[in-house]
Every structure is written in structure tokens, then in C-alpha cells.
Design a protein that fits this description.
Elements (H helix, E strand, L loop, with lengths): L8 H16 L9 H17 L9 E3 L4 E3 L1 H27 L5 H19 L3 H19 L6 H32 L4 H11 L4 H18 L7 H8 L2 H26 L4 H23 L5 H22 L2 H28 L15 H4 L1 H15 L5 H15 L3 H27 L14 H19 L2 H11 L4
Helix pairs in contact: 1-2, 1-4, 2-3, 2-4, 3-4, 3-10, 3-13, 3-19, 4-5, 4-10, 5-6, 5-10, 6-8, 6-9, 7-10, 8-10, 9-10, 9-12, 10-12, 10-13, 11-12, 11-17, 12-13, 12-16, 12-17, 13-15, 13-16, 13-18, 13-19, 15-17, 15-18, 16-17, 16-18
Length: 480
């Protein structure tokens, strides 16, 4: 393969594997559908291995200066491939139980991963839009993959309608920036915007519309209304993927646009993100307190954590961006781990996902209860966990740039989140199970392995974060 196209090898692997699965689907017996999940896991592993040569190399821009090859894009591609591989693993037994074990499910996950990788590596607004749409179309279908389930179909329709609405804002913002700057390339936009200064009203309006579009994709307040319903109605394995993959991809794309294309409008976008961060943290945590369904509770928790991540972006420094990348890794591990436990404890039909269903879990399934407790403690930001270290660096970056009030609000929100995270732990360990409540199903070996590894990783990141923090900080430097 030509050296110019070598950085695209992960994309080729994902697309080829997805097409192979689609071709195999009609000719594969029902009892062998899980093999296509195994092919997906293998494809993500090979793609991860193919990225090793890109790390630490000389940054370059290929494909007509549209595709950036640097440590930032490599970091996120590793993260997305890991998320996709884990999602395929935890989906295999779940799909068999729910009678949705079809090959196109795994192909859609691979295509969604391809879209996420394009978003992180994009150096042009057009390629960013294409990556978003590839990801969005795949997740619209995945959300409604349980076609005979009314909630799943409803979640898919809501996601599609509001996602299409967000796309209109995004496209209009791109059009205004193109009209103002004469290009969709980030470097050209940066150069023109630097000459024009902050007085270009068309560019500011375009920036605002871009932020609205990304606000929908990232479930930022006030554009969050779709997330709880979609996360609750989608199959649990899909919800696990959606709460981490598309969110991380959205932040990766938004970081590139704001830092590389529009740094001259920093005063405008930091002010907007400051307001969004406060609203997103506060509403997410306050409403999560009221939830009786664990999936909805984790959905509002995901909204609140998007607010925490915005704190690092508001800082608009290398330290803040490094903290954002580090926290996205931590958030991915603890959220995927929590959903692994929820998925394992749910019964056919995605039942047993209410808080009361976890009563007495500490005695009925000690391993699952202990693992979920570790993830909840980390999500709350307690010391000796990765969640605490991640929040510490996010809030420290904000304080260093003069946003003390924002950091204080973030800390107060973290304190508030303790209530609903610990409420679930109280139910698990201090309440008796309901009479006739069935014992949890045995956790499948792949899910158990992922859960244990995630639990160890969260604790390790809490006591020895330096290696991952160095990688995140080094990757963030590629933005400057």
C-alpha cells in the first residue's frame, strides 16, 4: 500500500470487515451468527495494531488536506476501536437472548466506528459532516434494532427526527462559515479568521449554529431532551455504546474545529460553553436524582459528565485539553463497566433495570455488586479512582485560567451526584430482595472479563494516572 494511504488502513479494515459480514449474513445459520461478532472483534483488534506505526510520527495532512494524521487522531482512533470491540463482545450473548443476533448489527457497529474515526481525524468541515452522518445513520438503526419492541422503535424514531433537526443546524453553520471564510479547510479558516479578527458577524453566527448542532449530538443542555428516552428504549448493549462512542467522537470533532479552525473566536465560544457547562452539569445531576430506572439514571449521569468535560474545554489551554482527553478515557472505562453489569443483570426483554430490582444484589451476586459499586464510586469522583483524578485535572485547568466559580459549581455538582449513585449502592447492600425475585443470570465469561479489567483500570488510574495522563497531554499538543 502507498505510504500516503497507510494512515487510512484502519478505515479500510473496518469497512472491509463490515461488508464481509453483510455478505455472510444471508448464508450463515442462525446458531452461528455470533461468528460475525467474533469477526468484528478481530477486525477492531487488527485495526488497533495497524495504528501502532502512526503514534509519534511526523504530523501530516492527506487526501487534499482533509485528513489529519497526528497523535490526536491516533489517540481517539485507539479509543473508538476499543469501544467498538468491547461493544461487539458484550453484544453477542445479549443479542442471542433478545433474538436480535443478526450480522448487520455488527456491521453497523463497524461502520459507526469508521464514522467516529473520520470525525477525530477530519481537517475539513465537509469530512467532519460526512463522519457525523456515517455515525448517526448507523446509530439510528442500532437504537431501533429490536424491531418488535415499541420502546426501541420509539427511541429510534426520536433519535432520527431530532438528529436530522440537529444536522440542519450543523449544515447551516458550515454554510455560513464557508461564506464568511471562503473555505471549509480548518487551516484556511484559521488564517482568514485571524486576519478578520472578532468582528466577523457571519462567522460568529455560523459558530453558534455549529455549537447548536454539536449540542444535540453531545446531549448538552438545552439540547439533551432526546437522550434519556433513546438510551432507555435502545437495547442495553447499544446504549452502552452510544453513551461513550458518539459522545467521545463529538468532543474530538468539536475540539478540532474550535482549537484549530476558530481560535480567534475563543472569547465567543468559551463564553457559550461556560453557560452550557453549568446548565448541563446541574440539570443532569438534579434530574438523575429523580430517576427510578437505572438506564435513565445513567443517561442523565452521561449528560452531567458532558458538562464536566466542557469545563476543560472552557479553560482553552493545553492542560485543559489534555484533561479532556484523559477524562474521556476514564469516563469510557467506568461507563462501559457500569453498563456491562446492568446488561448482565437484565433479563430477557431488557427487564430488571429499575433501582428496586437491585435490592439484595450484594448477597445474590457479590461480584456484580462489587464491580458496579466501584464504577459508581468513580462516577461520583471519590479519591483513589480514575473519576476523581479526571475531575481534579479538569477543575484544576479551569482554576488556572481564572474560572474558579465554574470549578466550584463542578465540585458542588459532584457532591450532588453522590446521592443517586450511593442510593443504588444502598439498595444493593441494605435492602432485602423482593419475594420471588429471580436470581441473576450467570455473567458470560467475556462480559465478566471486561468488567474485571475495567474495575482494575479504574482503580489503577486512580492511584497511578501518570502514563495515561502523559499520553493524553501529548496527544492534545497536536491541536496547537
Amino acid at each position: 500500500m502507498d505510504q500516503v494511504y497507510l494512515p487510512l488502513l484502519p478505515q479500510f479494515i473496518l469497512i472491509a470487515a463490515g461488508m464481509l459480514i453483510m455478505l455472510m449474513e444471508p448464508f450463515t445459520a442462525a446458531e452461528r451468527k455470533s461468528r460475525m461478532g467474533q469477526i468484528s472483534v478481530l477486525a477492531t483488534a487488527v485495526a488497533i495494531y495497524s495504528l501502532r506505526l502512526q503514534w509519534g510520527g511526523r504530523p501530516q495532512v492527506i487526501l487534499g488536506k482533509m485528513f489529519a494524521v497526528d497523535n490526536f487522531s491516533t489517540f481517539f482512533q485507539w479509543l473508538f476501536l476499543g469501544i467498538t470491540g468491547v461493544s461487539c463482545l458484550i453484544s453477542m450473548r445479549f443479542n442471542e437472548r433478545e433474538s436480535i443476533n443478526r450480522g448487520e448489527y455488527y456491521a453497523l457497529l463497524l461502520f459507526a466506528c469508521s464514522g467516529m474515526c473520520l470525525m477525530a481525524a477530519s481537517n475539513d468541515l465537509i469530512l467532519t459532516f460526512l463522519g457525523i452522518e456515517i455515525l448517526s445513520i448507523a446509530t439510528y438503526i442500532l437504537a431501533g434494532f429490536k424491531r418488535n419492541d415499541v420502546k426501541s422503535s420509539e427511541s429510534s424514531l426520536k433519535y432520527f427526527l431530532l438528529g436530522s433537526f440537529a444536522t440542519a443546524f450543523l449544515l447551516y453553520g458550515i454554510a455560513l462559515i464557508y461564506g464568511s471564510m471562503g473555505s471549509t479547510n480548518y487551516q484556511v479558516i484559521h488564517n482568514v479568521a485571524s486576519l478578520q479578527g472578532e468582528g466577523q458577524i457571519t462567522a460568529v453566527i455560523g459558530l453558534g449554529l455549529l455549537l447548536v448542532g454539536f449540542g444535540f449530538k453531545l446531549a448538552l443542555v438545552p439540547f439533551h431532551s432526546w437522550a434519556p428516552d433513546v438510551y432507555e428504549g435502545a437495547p442495553t448493549a447499544v446504549t452502552a455504546f452510544m453513551t461513550v462512542g458518539p459522545k467521545a467522537a463529538g468532543f474530538a470533532a468539536l475540539l478540532r474545529i474550535l482549537v484549530q479552525a476558530l481560535p480567534s473566536l475563543g472569547n465567543d465560544w468559551t463564553g457559550i460553553l461556560w453557560v452550557c457547562a453549568i446548565a448541563t452539569m446541574t440539570l443532569g445531576n438534579v434530574v438523575a436524582v429523580l430517576q427510578a430506572n437505572v438506564k435513565r439514571m445513567l443517561a442523565y449521569s452521561a449528560i452531567a459528565h458532558a458538562g464536566y468535560i466542557l469545563v476543560g474545554m472552557v479553560a482553552n489551554t493545553a492542560a485543559g485539553f489534555g484533561a479532556v482527553l484523559f477524562y474521556l478515557v476514564v469516563y469510557t472505562v467506568m461507563n462501559l463497566g457500569a453498563f456491562c453489569v446492568v446488561l448482565s443483570l437484565s433479563r430477557k426483554g431488557d427487564l430488571s433495570v429499575n433501582v428496586d430490582d437491585y435490592a439484595g444484589l450484594g448477597r445474590r451476586s457479590p461480584v456484580a455488586a462489587a464491580a458496579l459499586s466501584v464504577f459508581l464510586i468513580s462516577l461520583a469522583g471519590f479519591p483513589l479512582t480514575g473519576g476523581f483524578i479526571g475531575k481534579f485535572y479538569l477543575f484544576s485547568a479551569a482554576i488556572q485560567t481564572g474560572y474558579l466559580g465554574l470549578a466550584i459549581i463542578g465540585v458542588l455538582n459532584s457532591v450532588l451526584s453522590v446521592f443517586y449513585y450511593f442510593r443504588l449502592m444502598v439498595v444493593m447492600y441494605m435492602r432485602e430482595p423482593h419475594e420471588g425475585q429471580p436470581a441473576p443470570d450467570q455473567i458470560s465469561p467475556p462480559v465478566l472479563l471486561i468488567t474485571v479489567v475495567a474495575m482494575i483500570a479504574i482503580l489503577l488510574l486512580g492511584v497511578y494516572p501518570a502514563p495515561m495522563l502523559n499520553i493524553a497531554s501529548h496527544s492534545a499538543l497536536a491541536l496547537k
